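FIELD: query
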Amino acid sequence: MDPFIPVDYYDIVASLTETERAVYAKARTFVDNEVIPIIGQHFRDATYPDHLARRMGELGFFGPHLEGYGCPGLNNIAYGLIMQELDRADAGVRSLASVQGSLALYAIHQFGSETQKEKWVPGLASGELLGCFALTERNHGSDPSSMECTARLDGDHYILNGNKRWIGNATVADVKVIWAKDEAGHVGAYVVEQDSPGFRAEVIEGKFSLRTSRTCEVWLEDCRIPAANKLPEAKGLRAALACLSQARYGIAWGAIGTAQACYDCALQYAKNREQFGKPIAGFQLVQEKLVW
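FIELD: result
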C-alpha cells in the first residue's frame, strides 16, 4: 500500500496511472502539512486562509484539467483526486479551488476570446489573480433563468445593474465573471475587474458551514465595463450551466474526501477512547458501525 494513502477505501489506487498517483500524493502531502494544521482555528474564527490560494496555484490545483495558458492539462481523475483531498481538510478550501478553477477560470478558458484568455487565465491558474463567478441572485438560486441582473450596451461599454448573492471571494476577486441579461433577454457573461466603478460587495457573516470560505453579496449599480470584457462564446444559460457542471464534478469528489475524514476521525476516536477497561473499538457493536 502506498505510504501516503492510509486506507484505500474504494480500492482505486491500483487503477491509477503514475501521473494520477503523483498528483494524489502531492495533494495529500499539501493537505496534511499545510492545511489541516491551521484550518481548525480558521474555521472556529470564520477567517480566511488567503495564503493557501497562492500555494494552490503554485501546485497546479486551479483548473488542473484544463490545457494551455498556464493550466496543468491533467485528466479529470487527477482533478477529482485534488478536490477530494482539499475537501478532506475543509470544504471551504475546496470551495475556493472550485470557484477559482472550475467556475471563473473555466468560464474564461472555455468562452473567452484569445485576448481574454491570454490576459486573465494565466494569473488565475497561478493564483496571482483571484476570481469569482456571480450567477446566483437573492431571489433566483436554482432558477437562474429568472435572473434580474441586466447588461445594457452603451457605446463601447456595457452598464450592469442588479444584485448577486452567495458569491465566493467577490470582495477580493481581481476578475469577476458576472452573468446578466442583455436588452434582448439573452444571458451572457461579463468580466468586471477589481475596483470597477459601480461594483460593491460585502461578506455575508454568521454562516454555520463553509466558514473558511469568503461568501459575499454583490451589488451592481450602473457598473460600467468595456464592451471588450464580454465573453463572446458565453451564449445563453447553457454556458453558465456548463461551468456549474465542471464545479459539481469536483464537489462530488470532495464529498468523498469529507466522508473519508469523518471515518478516519471516528476510527481514531474508537481506538483511543477507553471504556470498561479497553478501547471502544474492541466492542463488536462499535466495530459493526465502523464496518457499515
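FIELD: remark
The mean pLDDT is 95.
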